[in-house]
Amino acid sequence: MIFYKTLNNWYSNNKRELPWRQTTNPYYIWLSEIILQQTQVKQGLPYYSAFVAEFSSVFDLANADESQVLKLWQGLGYYSRARNLHATAKYVANELNGEFPDTYKDLLKLKGVGDYTASAIASICFNEVAAVVDGNVYRVLSRYFGIDTPINTTQGQKEFKALAQELIDKQDPATFNQAIMEFGATHCKPKNPKCDTCPFKNSCLAYNKGDIENLPVKLKKTKVKTKYFNFLVILSNNNQTILEQRQGKGIWQNLYQFPLIETKNEVAFEEFKSLVKEHSILKDKTFELSLYNKEAIVHKLSHQHLHTKFWIVKLDAPLNNGVALETVSDYAVPILIGNFIEAFNF
Fold first, then answer.
1. What is the pTM of this model?
2. Is 128 annotated as catalytic?
3. Best label site of 80, 139, 240, 282, fewest CB within 10 Å?
4. Do residue 189 and residue 60 come from a single domain?
């Protein structure tokens, strides 16, 4: 059995019809690959459609305001992807006259483009023999060949990249790369893989050893930190609130949020009210405080869990630099805050 022939045959009969599979235009392929990093197709598809509708070319994306890009990205998470997307669009439009690099090596120089994305664009758009390796590929190869090298180690990454490069269809790398990713996403799934109808069943080492559930191997992640976020939703008597733009390199960079008081743990009402009284915006002002959600909303990020409460602050005074309540939903905010805004119905 020739691995790529079996795989490509499966793909021709089972592939999903997706809009980025109807083109080899590097702008659209790059856009889809950035969106699909850390994101499943079902979730990413409407975002891809929205971006293509709003920015039909790399020049359109380059000329957009960052706030517009972040707003369109809202809900996808990992917002550094959106900022890198915008930065790369500017670079390609302004420095490369709108032409994307046509080799794996040069694609790697673009901001936000790593080995996987460069391989995908190079193979799909320019027919370069560059094998992709993502979570789906790790899973397929580790199971089929019975490889227990941890995939989140340097050794594992090199081993699987070399293997994928060895297996790739040299005449049609684009189809092979899309086929192996599709096979991992829809057939050789993390849970409940379709082993009974798998074309590789007879030669898959993990299946024949009963080892499917144990592969691929991944070392334990960094310890997850717990943080306690308290957002102040200030409602003034002139129908305004306060939104602040996050600065620095931490989570949600350049997105907007309500004023935040971070505590070491959950605090009682009276203790928190004392903290609110000392806040620079509310000091020496008369206000009425109430808790919107008694149970903290736990928002899980890759390395931290945010235990979040929203506190409603009714202020018996106007705000000088506030935001009109009816415009709150126009701002690019983290999905955690976006969900609150939708539920609160300003």
1. 0.84
2. no
3. 80
4. yes
